[in-house]
Specification:
This is Tyrosinase copper-binding domain-containing protein. The protein is about 30% helix and about 15% strand. The protein has about 500 residues and is of the alpha+beta class. It folds into 3 domains: about 10-75, no CATH class; about 95-365, Di-copper center containing domain from catechol oxidase (di-copper center containing domain from catechol oxidase, Orthogonal Bundle), CATH 1.10.1280.10; about 380-500, Hemocyanin, Chain: A, domain 2. The protein is globular, with a radius of gyration of 25 Å. It binds copper (II) ion.
């Protein structure tokens, strides 16, 4: 080892630091032959190898300074086990464009770069093939290769890092050094035809997708991805019951981080940007509507680039671009922004803290081809939040919040929808994007119980109206199935009036 490794992983750099002799003679006290064994005693090992008391100095097996530093970096960075993906800033400014504004030349370059990543798919050990990059999101298992960051503070920072890794991989294809990932303005015009042509569609899994346990095949090699047509996608986004447009405008107008993000801090309310995102996934097709397979649809990358753009847009408009400014927009604790190992966004070499300032990664966005308007009307709860000193408009009594409280999503298998039904008709609906194994996923478990506020007009709830909630889950073959509320933690329904803040 000539240089210390800055972001070492157990499999690549740590395992082989221990010789057979080390493993044998230390067996009575610690197990140096497994990840768990080394991790559990990592601090003790570090102090011994630093002091030079282990391995035995007389046998000329003392670790070099580079090896000690590598081990120390491994401890400092949270014991990364496998597949560390380095997030590196581009050396030139990257300006991501609306995909509708790409020139013919830019489309050709993007096609070449995607094709280049797909050409690497035949080698399953190539970390930077399309298949393996897409596989970071969820499948293939086993569990230790699965990284679910949704419905938490880390959702946006994690995906920002993921996009940079993917874009850098595109740029590693010969001749594509200047390629830039474009974004799909979800509220803009229909997707252009080229997104439905090679190499962006079709795509079939080149290898079996192992499930969460890693023991069974969840999806066979050769299975094609499924995506809706451009017309259906647009129709879904703008459907009468689609919350995508309204939750994007709520998010962009939000004065604080938690209200922009949804599901943050102590409240687990499904709203704002994560609600728009979850419903957007559902609008695009069966493959992209499941976390386990979403990133295998090449359109996922244009779709997610837009969520990153909207986060950066909110940050820019609300003066939250630097870490100090960003922290001033927090309502709740900022421990998730600390510089500590447990905040590493696995499998990347960064923390949320590092991802706040997109400009520091040389990534920026060009405005979309259509104008973008933000609706800055905000609602406050009539109970609890309103201050006596604030004024309210009487007209606001027309808006009612119907809260579906304490839904237990860990009991529900896969992505699902919640419908608000009045006198037999569905008047509001929203989707939750979650894995089949939510009950076993660490991130999902943190926010297993959540609530959903549906805002409705008073005249939509006539006196004596019967209000019902339905939950439908989406099956792998595209069908759906209604499940009884008793299988979703028996949520209850609260109805409240809202006041418009003057
Ligand atoms: Cu997503």
């Amino acid at each position: 080892m000539e240089h210390p490794i800055e972001f070492p992983t157990y499999e690549e750099h740590i395992k082989d630091l221990f010789t057979q002799a080390d493993k044998g003679c230390m067996r009575f006290a610690l197990d140096l032959s497994t990840y768990d064994g080394v991790m559990e005693k990592a601090n003790q090992i570090l102090s011994r190898v630093k002091a030079g008391t282990m391995p035995p100095p007389d046998e000329n097996r003392r670790w070099s300074a580079e090896q000690v530093e590598t081990f120390e970096n491994w401890v400092k960075n949270g014991f990364q086990r496998v597949r560390a993906y380095l997030v590196r800033p581009s050396n030139k400014q990257v300006v991501r464009k609306d995909l509708l504004n790409l020139t013919g030349e830019e489309i050709a370059l993007l096609q070449k770069a995607f094709q280049g990543l797909r050409d690497r798919d035949s080698d399953i050990s190539d970390k930077f093939s399309f298949f393996n990059l897409a596989g970071i999101h969820w499948y293939p298992g086993p569990r230790r290769y699965i990284h679910c960051r949704h419905h938490d503070n880390e959702y946006n920072p994690w995906h920002r890092a993921y996009l940079i890794v993917f874009e850098n991989a595109l740029r590693s294809i010969e001749g594509c050094e200047t390629v830039t990932l474009p974004y799909w303005d979800i509220l803009g015009d229909e997707l252009p035809n080229w997104v439905f042509e090679e190499p962006f569609f079709p795509y079939s899994y080149p290898h079996d997708l192992l499930d969460f346990t890693g023991d069974e095949v969840a999806i066979d090699a050769g299975t094609p991805i499924q995506r809706f047509s451009a017309a259906i996608i647009k129709q879904n986004i703008f459907a009468r019951l689609s919350p995508v447009p309204s939750s994007i405008s709520t998010a962009l107008a939000a004065p604080t981080w938690e209200r922009f993000n949804g599901w943050s801090g102590s409240t687990s309310l499904h709203n704002a940007i994560i609600e728009a995102h979850d419903n957007g996934h559902g609008a695009c097709g069966p493959t992209i509507s499941r976390p386990s397979t979403a990133a295998f649809d090449p359109h996922f990358w244009f779709f997610h680039c837009n969520w990153d753009r909207l986060w950066w847009k909110w940050q820019t408009e609300h003066r939250a671009t630097s870490i100090a400014l960003f922290k001033s927009k927090l309502e709740e604790a900022d421990g998730w922004l600390d510089n500590k190992p447990s905040n590493i966004l696995k499998p990347f070499n960064v923390r949320s803290l590092d991802m706040i300032d997109s400009a520091s990664w040389n990534v920026g966005y060009e405005a979309p081809s259509r104008g973008e308007r933000t609706d800055d009307r905000t609602f406050v709860m009539a109970s609890g939040r309103a201050l006596g000193a604030e004024a309210f408009k009487i007209s606001s009594l027309e808006t009612v919040s119907v809260r579906v409280k304490n839904i237990n999503r860990l009991k529900i298998i896969g992505s699902f929808a919640i419908d608000l039904n009045v006198n037999g008709e569905t008047i509001r609906s929203t989707r939750i994007f979650q894995p089949d194994e939510a009950s076993e996923c660490d991130t999902c478990q943190k926010k297993g119980i959540f609530s959903k506020d549906f805002l409705v007009q008073r005249d939509e709830l006539p006196p004596g109206a019967e209000i019902r909630v339905r939950i439908r889950r989406f099956l792998i073959d595209g069908r759906e199935e209604e499940i009884p509320l008793s299988e979703a933690g028996n949520p209850n329904i609260n109805v409240r009036f809202l006041l418009d803040q003057e």
